[in-house]
From TrEMBL:
Residues 1-34, 45-62 have a biased composition (Low complexity). The keyword Nucleotide-binding applies. Its EC number is 2.7.1.40. This is Pyruvate kinase. It comes from the Eukaryota. Keywords: ATP-binding, Glycolysis, Kinase, Magnesium, Metal-binding, Nucleotide-binding, Pyruvate, Transferase. It catalyses: pyruvate + ATP = phosphoenolpyruvate + ADP + H(+). Pfam families: PK, PK_C. Belongs to the pyruvate kinase family. One of its GO terms (biological process) is response to stress. The lineage of its organism: Eukaryota, Fungi, Dikarya, Ascomycota, Pezizomycotina. GO terms for molecular function: ATP binding; kinase activity; magnesium ion binding; potassium ion binding; pyruvate kinase activity. The keyword ATP-binding applies. Residues 351-473 form the Pyruvate kinase C-terminal domain.
Length: 485
């Protein structure tokens, strides 16, 4: 990793009205969704945070300042648009109104750059006028609108890992049984530990996905990876915090490290960006999706394409097709051999079983692997070794069935029957019932065909950590007695 000084950003707080930027007076009053900025000298001042509304169930802890708009001008609409000012040639951002990071004047230095809205607008810092005002010059024309993020690359920001609002959001998530928390701008392993401490015992099952979006997160990625449940390579902000030309190498390195650790990794941001307005992606975008898959990404994510785009369904369809084509080009056998050589030995019993199951599936040309799991750990390790065939995870744990969708190639099957009393019911009989049910379900879905060889991974008794047994069965209703279920 690069040893340059860590970058810091202040992520967006979508529910916090905090920053506005009046612009030169327009010729006629109007209320667009955004306002035009042209290159000129401007002034920026910080403001404290305003109170915000309750966040949605899936939580994200941002660490970046936001833009919002002035509500006092008669030219403002109910959408909180940027307000034209009567003083041409200035962009004044005042204390208490515009930037939610009050120490911005203390950490920024002349010569640095301020980016707004994922780099759409860039401002050169000319001077720090006083504790409330920064003089900047716009580098380019563009549109600016409410609640946009502000990035301060190569600037050490003294924001805490968790604000009071972040803690309230996490507690809200625990109360409402969220499955995952996507933590923005993670800079060190301690940030993950702090989040776990707030989640507490009641939220211990919640998965934490660390979003890597700045230089400091890159530099400390190994320690972050040891603590987190998964990783998102958030290329939007990362491409602002580090040179854009370095993003592709960072993406490949982060994904490779996640693959070796067996942690799910998501590749996100601007994957099919042109489909926000166009019905078809560019060839470069399709190549980008395919490269993310061949790099080893477990998930690829659409954002603006489906959140605000004109062709959300088409975007999903195009990404789906690109993923299928890319998966068919992966050299699975050589990948498996490489992963086996990279793993640190001795391995745990459950990982040894996962390696043996994938090896058996390759040697047998199996149609699928069935794994009986309580915590999802066995399914995660099977996914780590990238079998050609699908992995059918059978569990009675609803939470496990939901978050296991993050694992590449895993089909989570939630077994409908309650756990029996094994003092009265034979353990192996219950195992056989679950295997038969999984085969039957996979046949109905069309992911298995009658006669396929199936590798089964199971434990010798119930509970977590007892996986130690492999079986080879055939997807045959007569052989398994599926018709009797």
């Amino acid at each position: 990793m690069s040893t340059t000084s860590p970058s810091s950003t202040m992520p967006a707080r979508p529910s916090t009205p905090t920053l506005a930027a009046p612009l030169p007076l327009l010729s006629t009053p109007r209320a667009p969704r955004s306002a035009l900025v042209t290159p000129r000298t401007t002034r920026i001042s910080p403001s404290p945070l305003a109170k915000s509304s309750t966040s949605p169930p899936t939580t994200s802890m941002p660490r970046r300042a936001t833009l919002t708009t002035c509500e006092s001008s008669p030219l403002c609409s109910s959408r909180q648009l940027l307000c034209p000012t009567r003083r041409p040639g200035s962009l004044t951002i005042q204390l208490g109104r515009y930037v939610d990071y009050k120490n911005i004047t203390k950490v920024i230095q002349p010569g640095r750059i301020i980016y707004v809205d994922d780099g759409v607008l860039a401002f050169d810092v000319l001077a720090i006028k006083d504790e409330k005002t920064i003089e900047v010059r716009a580098r380019n024309n563009g549109f600016i609108s409410s609640r946009k993020g502000v990035n301060l690359p190569n600037t050490d920001v003294d924001l805490p890992a968790l604000s009071e609002k972040d803690k309230a959001d996490l507690k809200f998530g625990v109360k409402n049984n969220v499955d995952m928390v996507f933590a923005s701008f993670i800079r060190r392993a301690q940030d993950i530990k702090d989040i776990r401490a707030v989640l507490g015992e009641e939220g211990k099952q919640i998965q934490i996905i660390a979003k890597i979006e700045n230089r400091q997160g890159l530099n400390n990625f190994k320690e972050i990876l040891d603590e987190t449940d998964g990783v998102m390579v958030a290329r939007g902000d990362l491409g602002i915090e580090i040179p854009a030309a370095e993003v592709f190498a960072a993406q490949k390195k982060l994904i490779a490290m996640c693959n070796i650790a067996g942690k799910p990794v998501i590749c996100a941001t601007q994957m099919l960006e042109s489909m926000i307005k166009n019905p078809r992606p560019t060839r470069a975008e399709i190549s980008d999706v395919g490269n993310a898959i061949t790099d080893g990404a477990d998930c690829v994510m659409l954002s603006g394409e489906t959140a605000k785009g004109n062709y959300p369904v088409e975007a999903v369809r195009e990404m789906h097709e690109a993923c299928l084509k890319a998966e068919n080009s992966i050299p699975y056998v050589s990948h498996f051999e490489e992963m086996c050589t990279l793993v640190k030995r001795p391995v745990q019993t459950v990982e040894s079983c996962a390696m043996a199951a994938v090896r058996a599936s390759l040697d047998l040309g199996a149609g699928g692997i069935i794994v009986l799991s309580t915590s999802g750990e066995s399914a995660r390790l099977l996914s780590k070794y990238r079998p050609v065939c699908p992995i059918f995870m059978v569990t009675r744990n609803a939470t496990t069935s939901r978050f296991s969708h993050l694992f590449r190639g895993v089909y989570p099957f939630l077994f409908p029957e309650a756990k029996p009393d094994f003092e009265k019911v034979n353990w192996q009989e219950d195992v056989d019932r679950r295997i038969k049910w999984a085969v039957n379900h996979a046949l109905e879905l069309g992911t298995l065909t009658i006669g396929d060889t199936v590798v089964v991974v199971q434990g010798w008794k119930g509970g977590m950590g007892n996986t130690n047994t492999l079986r080879i069965v055939r997807a045959d209703p007569e052989h398994l007695g599926i018709g009797q279920l």
